[in-house]
Task: inverse folding
């Protein structure tokens, strides 16, 4: 994945992935994988609710979540964008920067294994209520 070089605040900043809550898993796979040619680079989640990370083609990614189990949860999914993930070479430094700027931290930095991808991730809330993730591939 390309690493950004022009942002002086967040080392290596660029778009890592866009996360999408699907309403129709099979139709989503058909579009993103089969029609648009994105290939699966990681599979995780649970058998009941799989999650895939697809390479868009330039090294950036799309993360798709299988449908939520209940009708009430589907109302939440009416806005399918779940979060924006920014690539960084230092998640811990990036989250400290936004913490110092006064933004609410939703998830402190943690090391995770997402299928075949080892990463350090953290989440915070942006000024419009949007969820933003810092994603460091290890």
Result:
């Amino acid at each position: 994945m390309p690493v950004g070089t022009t942002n002086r605040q967040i080392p290596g900043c660029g778009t890592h992935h866009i996360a999408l809550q699907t309403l129709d898993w099979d139709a989503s796979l058909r579009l993103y994988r089969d029609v648009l040619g994105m290939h699966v680079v990681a599979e995780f989640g649970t058998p009941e609710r799989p999650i895939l990370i697809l390479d868009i083609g330039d090294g950036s990614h799309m993360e798709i979540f299988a449908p939520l189990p209940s009708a009430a949860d589907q109302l939440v999914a009416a806005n399918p964008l779940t979060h924006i993930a920014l690539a960084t070479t230092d998640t811990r430094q990036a989250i400290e920067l936004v913490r110092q700027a006064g933004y609410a931290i939703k998830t402190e930095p943690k090391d995770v294994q997402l299928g075949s991808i080892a990463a350090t991730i953290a989440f915070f809330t942006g000024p419009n209520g949007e969820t933003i993730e810092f994603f460091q591939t290890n």
Q: What stands out?
A: Strands lie at 14-21, 39-45, 50-55, 61-65, 81-87, 105-114, 117-125, 131-137.
